[in-house]
Structure to design on (218 residues):
C-alpha cells in the first residue's frame, strides 16, 4: 500500500513577498490546489481517516495508492478557498483545529513571531539566551523567520508569551505599529457547515502549544 498524507495551506493570489506573516507556511494558491485535487482523484483513492484506519488493519496486501488530505490550524483560507474546491470535486479532507483561535481575534504565536521579524527595525537581533545574534541584512526575511522560530521552539525555559514579549522589545517596532489579527480563522458555523458536507473536523490542541514544553498536567 502506498500512502500519502498531503498537508495544505492556501493563499489567494499567492505572493510570498507580500505576506504579513511567514510566507513559508503556504503551499499554493487555489488554482494550483485544484490541479492537485484532479491529480489525486485520477491517481489515488482519496480516503478519510476512518478509511485509512480500516485499511491499516487489513492484513491483506493492498495494491492501490491512497491519499489523505489534511489542513492544520483552522485558517480562514480553509473555508474560503479550499472547502469550495473540495466540495466541487467531491474530495474529503480533514481539518485539524486549534480551538482557542476560533471566533477570537487572537494572533497565534508563530504568526506573531513572523510579523515581528517582518517589521523589525533592527539590523541585528539578539535575545539573551541566543549563542549568537541574527543579522537581518537581506531584503527577504523568510530565512530569518525560520531561524527565529527554530530558536524560540528550542527554548523551553520560558512561556511562549514571555519569549514573544522579549522578541517584541528586541525588534524595536514603531510605537504605532498594528499587528493584523481579525478574521484569520474560521468560525464554528463554518466548521459545522464543512462537517455537514463531508469534511472531518479534528483537534490540534487548544492553542497549538509545543507539547514537549508543557507539564504533565497541561
Amino acid at each position: 500500500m502506498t500512502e500519502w498524507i498531503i498537508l495544505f495551506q492556501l493563499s489567494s493570489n499567492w505572493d510570498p513577498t507580500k505576506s504579513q506573516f511567514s510566507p513559508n507556511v503556504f503551499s499554493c494558491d487555489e488554482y494550483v490546489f485544484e490541479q492537485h485535487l484532479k491529480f489525486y482523484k485520477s491517481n489515488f483513492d482519496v480516503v478519510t481517516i476512518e478509511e485509512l484506519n480500516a485499511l491499516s488493519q487489513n492484513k491483506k496486501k493492498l495494491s492501490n495508492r491512497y491519499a489523505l488530505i489534511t489542513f492544520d490550524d483552522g485558517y480562514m483560507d480553509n473555508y474560503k478557498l479550499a472547502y469550495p474546491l473540495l466540495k466541487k470535486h467531491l474530495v474529503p479532507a480533514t481539518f485539524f483545529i486549534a480551538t482557542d483561535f476560533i471566533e477570537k481575534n487572537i494572533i497565534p504565536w508563530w504568526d506573531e513571531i513572523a510579523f515581528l521579524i517582518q517589521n523589525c527595525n533592527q539590523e541585528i537581533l539578539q535575545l539573551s539566551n541566543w549563542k549568537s545574534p541574527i543579522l537581518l541584512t537581506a531584503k527577504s526575511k523568510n530565512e530569518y523567520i525560520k531561524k527565529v522560530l527554530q530558536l524560540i521552539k528550542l527554548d523551553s525555559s520560558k512561556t511562549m508569551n514571555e519569549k514573544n514579549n522579549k522578541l517584541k522589545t528586541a525588534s524595536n517596532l514603531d510605537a504605532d505599529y498594528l499587528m493584523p489579527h481579525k478574521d484569520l480563522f474560521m468560525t464554528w458555523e463554518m466548521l459545522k457547515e464543512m462537517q455537514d458536507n463531508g469534511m472531518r473536523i479534528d483537534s490540534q490542541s487548544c492553542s497549538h502549544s509545543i507539547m514537549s514544553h508543557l507539564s504533565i498536567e497541561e
